[in-house]
Structure formats: structure tokens, C-alpha cells
Amino acid sequence: MKMVRARVGSLVESNRFQLFIVGVIVVNALTLGAETTTVLHANFGPLLTFIDHLALAIFTVELAARLYAFGWRFFRDPWNVFDFVIVAISLIPTAGPLSVLRALRILRALRLVAMVPSMRRVVTALVRSIPGLVSLSGLLVLLVYVGGVIASNLFGDTGDPRFSGLGPTLLTLFQITTGDGWSDVMRDLMVQKPFAWVFFLIYLLVGTFTMLNLFIAVVCSAMQEEVALPAPRTGAHDDLVLQEVRALREEVRALRATV
Questions:
Q1: CA end-to-end span of the chain, whole Å?
Q2: Exposed e or buried b for every residue in 87-122, given b needs 16+ CB within 10 A?
Q3: DSSP 231
Q4: Which residues have C-beta within 8 Å of that of residue 199, sequence separation ≥ 6?
Q5: Is the entire prediction scored with pTM above 0.85?
Q6: DSSP SS3 for 129
Q7: How many CA atoms lie within 13 A of 10 on its CB side?
Q8: Domain range 128-228, its CATH number among 2.60.120.200, 1.20.1250.20, 1.10.287.70, 1.10.540.10
Q9: Three-class SS of residue 230?
Q10: How many CB atoms lie within 10 A of CB 162?
Q11: What CATH number labels 2-115?
């Protein structure tokens, strides 16, 4: 039994099998996209449905093989749990009131993140940068709030509905932070407040350019740390090596017993 599990584990962890699964994921993603096109769905609807069902069957068999090979140790790896959740969602019936879940089939394309090591590193780096991003987000919220109070006092008497209160002003400043139409807002205010450009230039320099660069710096720092680290070996891989070693030991013992 252990030898069979070891062989199944070797198969599902082999590079050829991984490339095959990646190919199935890409084809399935293209199929799901083609189903949203009216012309393609009208002409090739049954074929697209067949490919979709075939891909789901392959994913299910692959997941079952990995569960058989590694047992409960399969769930030690967060990426294995991610794959399990994605496939489980795809297996939920999409008839009747659950038909809305049919749109979630495209989540299978996210399995590329778990299958491609470079993508895993990017996601891991983003997760590592979350604490820094949360701190910067809090600083950005504080900046928008301070700017909103100042802008309400400066431009509240202009009659512009975008600065009629703290709420509309915060919404306007958030829009300006994204770089959407800030020059139009500034020019409208300059009709009554000629020096409005001073506030907008300072706010854009601090709120947009500086904060955006800080966000990028945090993510880049996390990426550099992740690249500098050695590639982690998954728990599934380690279990597979142990199973193979144990199987080899049992074979050696069996050979010694027959001599």
C-alpha cells in the first residue's frame, strides 16, 4: 500500500504531470471565456460543455490522487487547501437556486497560481507585504481626512456640491487621489478661489505621488525578500520523499529475507 501511494505521489508531483494540469487549466479557462460569447456558444455549445466537464473530471481525479498519496498531510500545504477549495466549489451543483455559482467556475483558472512557482512567489510576497500596506492605508485615510477638513473650510462657501460637507469632500478627494478629473475640479474652484491650485498641487504631491511610491516600495521590498529566500519545499514533497525511502527500505528487507 505504501509503495502504491509513493508511486501515485511520484506521478502527481512529476513535472510532466504538472505541465499537463497547467495545460488543462489554460484550456478550461479559454473554454469558459468562449461560453460567454454568443456566437461561439451557439455554434460550439455542446463541445464547450463537454470540454468543461472533462476538465472538471481531470481536476477531480488529480485532487483525489493527491489526497490518496499524501493522506491528511495533504492539508498541511496552504496551496493544496487552495486547490481543494477551488475544485470543491466547482463540484457544487449549479441548478436551481444555486445557478449563480456557475459563474464561479472561472475560479479554476486561479489554480495557475498554485501550479506555477513564480506566481506562488508573487502571491507570497503580496501576503508578506500586507502589514506594511495596512499601515500605509491607515496613513492614507488620515491624510484624506485631514485634507477633507481643510478643503471643506476652504471651498465650502463656493456653493460647489462637491465640497458642501465633509462627506462629499472626502469622496471628491478620494476621486482626486486616483487622478480622476482633478484638473476639472481645480479649475472650477479657481473661478471663485484663484489660489485653489496651491491646495490641489500640495495634496496631489503628498497624497498621490508620495503615497503611491510608498505602496510600490513596500511591495517591491517584500518581493526582494521573497526572491532572496531559497525556494521552499512543500510538505507534500517531503512526505513523498519519506514514503519513497520507506518503500525502498521495505524492498531491501524483502530481498534480504529471500537470500
A1: 24
A2: beebeeeeeeeeeeeeeebeebbbbebbbeeeebbb
A3: P
A4: 150, 151, 154
A5: no
A6: coil
A7: 12
A8: 1.10.287.70
A9: coil
A10: 18
A11: 1.20.120.350
Q: Considering only CA atoms, give the Rg of the chain.
A: 28
Q: Kindly give the confidence (pLDDT) of every residue in the chain, 259 residues in length, as a single tens digit, with 9 standing for 90 and above.
A: 667 777 887 888 888 888 898 898 889 889 888 888 888 888 888 898 899 889 889 989 988 988 888 888 888 888 788 888 888 887 877 655 655 666 677 777 877 877 777 787 788 888 888 888 888 888 888 888 999 999 999 998 888 888 888 899 999 998 888 878 888 889 989 988 889 899 999 988 887 778 878 888 888 887 777 666 655 544 455 555 556 666 666 666 666 666 5
Q: Cell match 460567454: residue?
A: 36
* Category of 71 on φ-ψ map: left (φ > 0), alpha (ψ -120 to 50) or beta: left
Task: For residue 209, give the amino acid letter.
Answer: F
209 grid coordinates = 505621488
Query: Measured between alpha carbons, how far is 110 from 124 in angstroms, rounded to an integer?
Result: 14
Q: Which amino acid is at 56?
A: L
Residue with cell 534480504: 256
CA atoms of 191 and 202, how far apart (whole Å): 19
**For the chain, which residues make up each domain, given as ranges?**
2-115, 128-228
